[in-house]
Amino acid sequence: MTSCRVLLGALALAASTLSQGLDPAKLGQPPTDSWPTYNGDYSGRRFSTLSKINTQNIGSLSLAWIYRLDPGNTSMGGSINSTPVLINGVMYFTVPDHVWAVDARTGRQLWQYVWSSKGGIHLGNRGVGVYGNWLYFETPDCNLVALNTKDGKERWHRQICDLDQMYYASVAPIVIKNHVIVGVSGDDLDIPGYLESRDPETGEVQWHFSVVPKPGEPGSETWPNADAMAHGGGMTWVPSTYDPELNMLYVGTGNPQPVIAGKGRMGDNLYTESIVALNLDTGKRVWHFQPSPHDTHDWDAVQTPVLFDGEFNGKPTKMLAQASRNGYFFVLDRTNGKNLVTSEFVKTNWAKGVDAKGQPIPNPAKEPQVNGALVSPNQAGAVNWPPPSFSPATGLFYVNASRAFSEYYIYDESEKPEGWGGNDRGGWAEAMLEAIDYKTGKIRWSHKWEGTGGRSGLLSTAGNLLFAGDPSNNLVALNATTGEPLWHANLGASMTNAPITYELDGSQYLTVGAGDTLYSFVMNAK
Amino acid sequence: MVLGRSSSREEWSEVIANMVAKGAKGTSAEFGQVLDYLTNNFGPKKVAAGATAAPPRRTGGLTQGPNDKHVVDAQAAARGRAIYISECITCHGPRARGKGDNTDLVRSLTVLHDRYGNTIGPFLRKGHSTQSGTASSSFTDAQVSDLANFLHQQVNDTLRSGPFSKVLNVLTGDPKAGQAYFNGAGKCNTCHSPTGNLAGIASKYDPPTLQQRFLFPRTANFSRGQIAQVKPTTVTVTDANGSVSGVLDKIDDFSISLRDDSGEYHSWKRTPDLKIEKHDPYAAHIELLDLYTDKDIHDIVAYLETLK
After folding, report:
1. How many Å is the maximal CA-CA distance in chain B?
2. How does pLDDT run across A337-352, given as a tens digit for each residue?
3. How many CB pairs under 8 A join A and B?
4. DSSP bridge partners of A511
5. In whole angstroms, what is the distance from residue A151 CA to residue A130 CA?
6. Cα–Cα nearest to A402, from B212, B297, B221, B21
7. Is the CB of B170 less than 8 angstroms away from the CB of A372?
8. How far is B46 from chain A (nearest CA, A)?
9. Distance between CA A199 and CA B267 in Å, rounded?
10. Are the C-beta atoms of residues A466 and A478 closer than 8 Å to each other?
11. What residues contact residue A12 under an 8 Å CB cut-off, 6+ apart?
12. What is the CATH number of domain B74-157?
């Protein structure tokens, strides 16, 4: 009840705190008794100030509860890719078409909501956003659905994309002030990507940011013609981050389209594969930085743009960092998008160098070729969507990375390929957990995993711990400073989301998803 | 991977190969079972002559687009192609992707929103110019349906699962240079010989498969619908009690297990005192990934292709 009263008090105080009990001013002080938004707070750091679980006592961590999904008499796509949102002791999480509410102390189900689907790719769903008593999630058949958090009853649903054009929806909505930020997915036909702000009460569009410009707009000079722009891709399928002081929303955008065969879209293809800063209230672009100009390898630059403040070259600096799917790590000044650091976090072979803006310069010889081009990383990338973590305690940016090769081919030699027109085949990969020094971009430590695949999201804590999934179904706790593995539990399936942690009744919990099961561990209060 | 589609055994084997490359785990026998299952259950569909395609009922799955999307009847599409060639191709191009300022029908919302002619039909009935001068409003329902089938087929052909998703020609290198690399910088002749274990290799595999097999031997053993045996990594584990060797079963930061020659299973907790020696039979291929140029790769394919 206490946390309930706090939430109500906050509601009365300021409209900005109406959303999910997360005061945007607390960007640097995320709450400890909740996990109110996809990344825990708006910064995307996935760092918890909790330290009741720490390097000294991690061996005493015990299992609190297990919750195994029962989708009922419906088909269910994917595993638990969603990061649970936790408010007032209740955890909300999803798989495509399904939302569950469970008691965060016991794992007991409170309700389950099932959406009747009209189709779309059921690959994964990244979770929910909450505004007061309303919960929002996206469905593979292109709907934004609002539910009552109390009982899971539907309030309304709104179409947010066109299923016939093979869009689908998978991202977790982010609620900031009175905006529900929604993104879209879809790489099958050549369609334009966008990000929208929706009214939390009505679901109506407040603003629409088109990732690809229209003729005559800034960025249009990086496309050959209006047709290429109208079909240029740039999906928005990983949640954005937000700086309340600057009122800027930071969006990572996906690959241009056609995905592989880029002959009909010569140029840099802005604002695909970019980190874009938008004004939260208008959706207008403030600045951009492009990790992969004219990408032809499906290397979405959607990875979480992580926000932190710290010292850079002796000055206090507001920064944004991204470990991008193309294998490069970037640190930007998030007030203006100016590049501070560019480095490779795995060895790659596709760029000729870095330009004056800090952006890699693609080597045309490493674009897909009719007779094949050996490219590293592969299509799955040096990282993919699973969230990274930044610890202000260690100053290290953590990524669950892969170094991988595959052979990229062009299948459609025409002047204007459509759809795919090429792909990569085969491959080899190795996997490692890395800690990057944000000041230099250098790897402080790298822990090579045995085997490949099974890359999870990450969580770092003030207990000097880093939690990660390895390729062998283990949930592993490592010393965040040194990378030494300290504890593990084999979950029988790969970890499929990123861990969260929270404190209830004096006990710190750690909850992870692996396949169709949530596992909650606890360090019980003494 | 996208289920809910029909693919040949060869196409499914490629899908599996890509999954393995991205980290899917299993034995050759297990992947063989998966291949059998996919081919049997999601293999080429046989449509009876004159059959009207009915939308299959789908719930969820990894299928792109709507559940009630137009399911193409290949025979109707073939009839539609003939109509398209006589009435439409001049303006809309051979693959319906438009020409000049003429509409790209593959990207047309009228086509993408259509089900069995229900938007294409009304569009044509309003009147649209044709090559022969025949009034488009005079097209019969059957002709509209045939055209709709053809246009939906063109849309499906652009998908990554489409029939044009095939390697075209990797045979562009210089066989002499490939032979020199094979015997020189690549040190391929350390383990391989054109008259020994590579004799006749080009008769066994097509050039794209040859290319994949030397680049990624662990994932490229999927070809022509067959799943070949992959050589396992072997390991010797030594502790205070002595050494045990065998085929590596599982290894992570915390434990290791193997099966010895007699099939006996052994496992250990990993400690600083436990000595582990791994032998990956494909290690030399992996090292080459950082050394090859694309020219080297194309030259090697050209050389291997001479080994008929």
Report:
1. 90
2. 999 999 999 999 999 9
3. 193
4. A500, A520
5. 14
6. B21
7. yes
8. 24
9. 57
10. yes
11. none
12. 1.10.760.10
Q: Let me know if A298 is a catalytic residue.
A: yes
- Whether residue A289 contacts residue A358, with contact meaning beta carbons closer than 8 Å, is answered with yes
Q: Where are the domains of chain A?
A: 2-305+314-523
Structure tokens at A376: 């590293």
Tokens of A191: 């369609």
Q: What is the value of ipTM here, to two decimals?
A: 0.92
Q: Which two tokens stand for residue B104?
A: 């790209």
Q: Do B25 and A453 touch (CB under 8 A)?
A: yes
Containing H/E element for B86? helix B74-87
Is residue B44 classed exposed, middle or buried when 0-12, 13-18 and 19+ CB atoms within 10 A define those classes?
exposed
Is A410 close to B106, i.e. CB distance below 8 A? Answer: no
Q: Return the amino acid letter for A394.
A: T
In this structure, which amino acid lies at residue A149?
T
> What dihedral do alpha carbons A366, A372, A375, A378 form, nearest 10°?
130
Residue A428 to residue B219, Cβ atoms within 8 A: yes
What is the C-alpha separation between B142 and B152, in angstroms, rounded?
15
Between A292 and A18, name the one with better pLDDT. A292
Do A96 and A139 contact (CB within 8 A), yes or no? yes
pLDDT of residue B219: 82
Question: Cβ(A258)–Cβ(A190) under 8 Å?
Answer: yes
Of the residues A23, A190, A298, A470, only one is catalytic, namely A298
Handedness of CA A174, A179, A181, A182 (dihedral sign): positive
* DSSP summary character for residue B75: H
Q: List A429's β-bridge partners, or say none.
A: A404
Give the residue from chain A lying closest to B299, CA to CA: A371
* The pLDDT value given to residue B118: 97
Q: What is the pLDDT of residue A10?
A: 31
Tens digits of residue pLDDT in A305-331:
999 999 999 999 999 999 999 999 999
Peptide bond into A258 cis (omega under 30): yes
Which residue has 């592993």 as its token pair?
Answer: A476
The runs of H, that is alpha helices, within B126-263 are: 141-157, 175-183, 201-204, 207-215
The verdict on a CB contact (< 8 Å) between A418 and B252 is no
Hey, what are A399's tokens?
Answer: 């990524």
Confidence of residue B51 (pLDDT cuts 50, 70, 90): very low
The type of residue at B115 is: R
Nearest CA in chain A to B278: A450
How near does any CA of chain A get to the CA of B254, in Å? 8
Query: Which residue reads 């208008």 in tokens?
Result: A282
Q: Which of 2.30.30, 3.40.50, 1.20.120, 2.60.40 would CATH assign to domain B234-280?
A: 2.30.30
pLDDT digits (tens, 9 = 90+) for A251-269: 999 999 999 999 999 999 9
B207 vs A contacts (CB less than 8 Å): none
Give residue for tokens 């049997």.
B40
Q: What are the chain A neighbours of B106 within 8 Å (beta carbons)?
A: 189, 418-419
CATH homologous superfamily of A2-305+314-523 equals: Quinoprotein alcohol dehydrogenase-like superfamily (2.140.10.10)
**What three-state secondary structure class fits B152?**
helix
Domain segments of chain B as ranges = 74-157, 175-230+284-305, 234-280
Give the 3-state secondary structure percentages of chain B, helix then strand then coil, rounded to 5: 40, 10, 50
